[in-house]
Amino acid sequence: MSDVGTKGRLKYLRYSIALAFLSLFISWKITDIFFALGFTGIIFTLFSNNAAVVQRSLRVFRKTDVLLLVWGGASILGYFFGAPQVGPEQLEEMAGLRWIAAYFIAIYWGSFLAQEESRPQTLWLVLLSVMVLATLPYQEGLAMLKVRYEGVFGNVNVAACVLLLPWAFLLAWDFCDAWERREIDAALILTLVVLTTLLFFTQTRGVWLAMIGTLLLMFIIRPSKRYIGVLGVIVVTLAGFYFLNIFGFRDRIIYSFNLSPDSSQGIRLELWKAYWKMFLDYPLLGVGFYETVRLLPSFYGNSAVYEKLFMGGAVFGHAHNQYLQILAGSGVIGFAAWSWFFISLLRESIVSFKSTVSPYIKRLCISMGAVLFAFLLCGIFESPMMLHPARLGLFILVGCALGVIREKTRLK
């Protein structure tokens, strides 16, 4: 009876996690509800009279997890030591950093998912449904082939950064299938193809770079005969798109070398200079995570371009570089904690991969590492930590995978 009850709870947990990820495509406020319920579960567990339950719940967390809290603390202190004033808006933004708790809740969820080993078919199908539904509010007819895809997100960069995460996870998972010579998972491949297509139509070059880098990483880890052919098809297809300028692909690539002041690249260069100046003025703790956008006008060099693009709402004033964004927002203390946090996650995925004999855990380690790698790589030209759906998606995928890995391997 207890086994039946456990299976039932695991089933509901799997669907809850899938729905939490689905809610990212609807409203982050709905996602907050799922995390609030998860946090409530943790509190009840910690106050349980069963010492064994409490010990089991806490052992999935590591000392390195505290680094994320250190970064959050530095981001908050930046408001008091760097921002011109701390008013209601700043206090609300500080309270908004509660999304950091999502990482710990996701790990807690994952520790329960570790009670079974199954191919997460539900996740593939949910993601596929989401991808299809996300295209419904998109431009009608063939017009969708001539404009950048943004789906339900209302912003192409947000759409690209969110979709990149499950794409990297599924890509690594399918690579593991190829290495183990498993049969092709039709649901996984179909979802991966849809994700790849949508990411292509976002025309977000920073995410394209992350996709190429993640593909190369998989080949470096272990070449696969199946994917040598796939890579050949991709190269030929992109070459055809370029020379025939299909979907404006060649125009997009050529535009990447346009450095005029009001071009995308020119604006990025000015943004990077502005955020670097901001960091130099407040090097220790920065100015506060969200305060960077508010202070940008006083650091941006070309005021005419700023008024035209930023004040008109055409461009959101984050750094378009994750690392400069963290430096300016939380200073060298926050940047050190944030960087070491992600380095420790990558290291843990490698150590866990080497220490386990379970093929299931090995593929989880590789998939988690691929998500982290793609997230960090796209951060060269984007600021996904500033995008709520992207960072929550990261915490759901990585946190749940970590919970399973830690519960199975018991790393010390």
Radius of gyration: 22 Å
What count of helical segments does DSSP give? Answer: 18
Helical content class: over 70%
Stretches where pLDDT falls below 50 for ≥5 residues? 1-6, 136-145
Largest sheet: none
Structural class, from secondary structure content? mainly alpha
Assess the beta-strand content as a share of residues: under 5%
- In one word, what is the shape? globular
Reading the helices and strands in chain order gives HHHHHHHHHHHHHHHHHH
Average pLDDT, to the nearest integer? 78
Beta strand count: 0
Distance between the termini: 34 Å
Question: In a nutshell, what does this entry contain?
Answer:
This protein has 412 residues and is an all-alpha fold. Helices cover 71% and strands 0% of the residues.
Task: Indicate the topology.
Layout: H1 2-23, H2 28-46, H3 51-58, H4 66-82, H5 88-96, H6 101-113, H7 121-134, H8 156-179, H9 186-202, H10 205-221, H11 225-244, H12 249-255, H13 264-281, H14 291-295, H15 303-309, H16 322-355, H17 359-378, H18 388-409
Helix pairs in contact: 1-2, 1-7, 2-6, 4-16, 6-18, 7-9, 8-9, 8-10, 8-17, 8-18, 10-17, 11-12, 13-16, 16-17, 17-18
Features:
globular, single chain, mainly alpha, 0% strand, 412 residues
Structural summary, described in words:
- There is one protein chain.
- This protein is mainly alpha-helical.
- The protein is 71% helix and 0% strand.
- It contains 18 helices and no strands.
- The protein has helices at residues 2-23, 28-46, 51-58, 66-82, 88-96, 101-113, 121-134, 156-179, 186-202, 205-221, 225-244, 249-255, 264-281, 291-295, 303-309, 322-355, 359-378, 388-409.
- α8 packs antiparallel against α17 (359-378) and α8 (156-179) packs parallel to α18.
- It starts with a helix and ends with a helix.
- The model is unreliable at 1-6 and 136-145 (pLDDT under 50).
